[in-house]
């Protein structure tokens, strides 16, 4: 049992004592010093009361000599009385741990003194009551933001996702409050609107997670970055091919919530081509021509770091040659098709893995809404049970109802790639997993439609990070 000394008066002192008597711990023994009887609260067997003026050195000396206190708490309404009481305690016990309510900004340097500043507490509470501000634990752990509560808004990209489908490096979802009931996370639970998530982890990481959860649809290419990056290898490319790439990049930039577009041209040796490229330079379009030979990885690493890139645009040959490096960057990658942006009417998902599809669903809805495309999902899951197929159906229908985007979902018994190869009106959305990076030759022996993505190599394809 620990001994705790409380020196209190005034309204706040009384409220503090009332709080203790309502929820006191039977493991501790409380000793209360008060001056006026109006400060008193109900008597309990764990509380001993002393009626005297705490500024009296002799009287406080007797109490401090009689008991060893784990903590002394001072809640006084008068500044001079607070300072005098602190001085008395320090004269008696130099290393006594003290917590004091400080309404005045006391200029006292003492490593064994913890000042509770009422103004700071009020400012923090008023700040946290603002919309979209996460709550951080103030009296648990290190109080540095490593424990946080976030309310999931309508429109969040985290809605209706299984907890296990959310990447959680350096952070975890510890609990969920739904309709004032506590839920402990398991693999079956999906996140719903107005859920309050209790998350723990690195404070810097949690601040980023909070921003990500609060962000609504219409933000793509976020959360991967703010800007679009189109890289063009001008080697063996004529002016028309380069112009098509740039026109595509501009069309996507105009329709997406991207701040600007960066166009990087490498191996540009034709002066006429370079002059034409320079004519594209505008406020929202930054053109960079690489005149000296460098490794692609070095060029892109420098640019991705400098320009906060969220979407990388490439042609088919560039993607095939550098897909391993592109995968390592954890960015969305758009491979340009052969048929023209204006023909695209829908976003196509070929589903052979429910877990992967769930991870890209929010990004697919986001970009589809911005581009005005409806979503077409073909369920081709030979080995998955009926329940998994039904879950995917419910998952996308729920998102469709919230965001008003039309979704067509059909189950197919045969691989749909051959039929889709004959069409050119879709944006093929693919989980950018490690299996996409593997050899195309080995993929020919698989029924996995993600591994066989190259079958639709002439179409527009959007690769979304999942690893």
Describe the structure.
By secondary structure, this protein is an alpha/beta fold. The protein has 4 domains: 2-121, Rossmann fold (3-Layer(aba) Sandwich); 131-214, Alpha-Beta Plaits, CATH 3.30.70.1450; 227-335, HUPs (Rossmann fold, 3-Layer(aba) Sandwich); 341-465, HUPs (Rossmann fold), CATH 3.40.50. The chain is 34% helix and 25% strand. The chain contains 14 helices and 21 strands. It has helices at 10-23, 57-66, 79-92, 118-128, 203-214, 239-255, 271-278, 296-307, 316-328, 354-371, 386-403, 417-420, 434-437, 440-443; strands at residues 2-8, 28-34, 47-51, 71-75, 98-102, 113-117, 135-136, 147-151, 171-178, 181-183, 196-201, 227-233, 261-266, 285-290, 309-314, 332-335, 346-351, 374-379, 407-411, 426-432, 460-465. Helix 2 (57-66) crosses helix 3 (79-92).
SSE arrangement:
Blueprint: E1 2-8, H1 10-23, E2 28-34, E3 47-51, H2 57-66, E4 71-75, H3 79-92, E5 98-102, E6 113-117, H4 118-128, E7 135-136, E8 147-151, E9 171-178, E10 181-183, E11 196-201, H5 203-214, E12 227-233, H6 239-255, E13 261-266, H7 271-278, E14 285-290, H8 296-307, E15 309-314, H9 316-328, E16 332-335, E17 346-351, H10 354-371, E18 374-379, H11 386-403, E19 407-411, H12 417-420, E20 426-432, H13 434-437, H14 440-443, E21 460-465
Parallel strand pairs: 1-2, 1-4, 2-3, 4-5, 5-6, 12-13, 12-15, 13-14, 15-16, 17-18, 17-20, 18-19, 20-21
Antiparallel strand pairs: 7-8, 8-11, 9-10, 9-11, 16-21
């Amino acid at each position: 049992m620990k001994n705790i000394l409380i020196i209190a008066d005034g309204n706040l002192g009384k409220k503090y004592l009332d709080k203790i008597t309502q929820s006191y711990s039977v493991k501790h023994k409380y000793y209360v010093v008060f001056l006026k009887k109006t400060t008193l609260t109900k008597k309990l067997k764990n509380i001993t009361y002393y009626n005297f003026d705490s500024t009296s050195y002799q009287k406080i000396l007797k109490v401090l000599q009689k008991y060893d206190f784990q903590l002394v708490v001072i809640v006084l309404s008068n500044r001079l009385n607070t300072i005098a009481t602190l001085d008395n305690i320090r004269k008696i016990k130099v290393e006594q741990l003290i917590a004091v309510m400080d309404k005045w900004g006391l200029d006292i340097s003492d490593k064994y003194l913890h000042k509770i500043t009422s103004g700071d507490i009020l400012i923090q509470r008023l700040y946290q009551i603002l919309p979209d501000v996460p709550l951080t634990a103030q009296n648990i752990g290190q109080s540095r933001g490593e424990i946080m509560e976030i309310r999931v808004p309508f429109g969040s990209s985290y809605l209706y996702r299984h907890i296990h489908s959310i990447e959680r490096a350096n952070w975890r979802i510890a609990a969920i409050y739904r309709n004032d009931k506590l839920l402990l996370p398991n693999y079956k639970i999906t996140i719903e609107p107005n859920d309050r998530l209790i998350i723990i982890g690195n404070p810097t990481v949690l601040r980023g997670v909070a921003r990500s959860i609060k962000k609504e649809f219409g933000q793509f290419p976020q959360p991967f970055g703010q800007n679009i990056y189109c890289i063009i290898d001008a080697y063996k490319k004529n002016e028309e091919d380069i112009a098509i790439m740039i026109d595509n990049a501009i069309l996507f930039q105009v329709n997406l919530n991207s701040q600007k577009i960066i166009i990087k041209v490498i191996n540009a040796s034709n002066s006429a081509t370079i002059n034409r490229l320079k004519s594209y330079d505008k406020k929202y379009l930054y053109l960079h021509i690489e005149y000296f030979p460098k490794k692609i990885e070095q060029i892109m690493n420098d640019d991705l770091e400098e320009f906060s890139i969220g979407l990388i645009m490439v042609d088919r040959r560039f993607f095939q040659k550098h897909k391993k490096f592109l995968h390592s960057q954890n960015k969305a990658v758009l491979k340009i098709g052969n048929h023209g942006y204006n023909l695209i009417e829908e976003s196509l998902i070929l589903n052979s893995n429910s877990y992967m599809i769930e991870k890209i669903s929010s990004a697919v809805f986001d970009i589809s809404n911005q581009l005005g495309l409806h979503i077409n999902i073909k369920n081709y899951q030979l080995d998955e049970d009926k329940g998994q197929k039904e879950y995917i159906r419910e998952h996308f229908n729920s998102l469709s109802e919230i965001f008003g985007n039309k979704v067509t979902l059909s189950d197919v018994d045969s691989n749909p790639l051959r039929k889709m190869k004959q069409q050119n009106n879709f944006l093929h959305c693919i989980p950018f997993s490690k299996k996409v990076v593997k050899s195309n030759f080995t993929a020919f022996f698989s029924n996995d439609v993600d591994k066989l993505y190259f079958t639709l190599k002439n179409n527009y394809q959007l690769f979304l990070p999942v690893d």
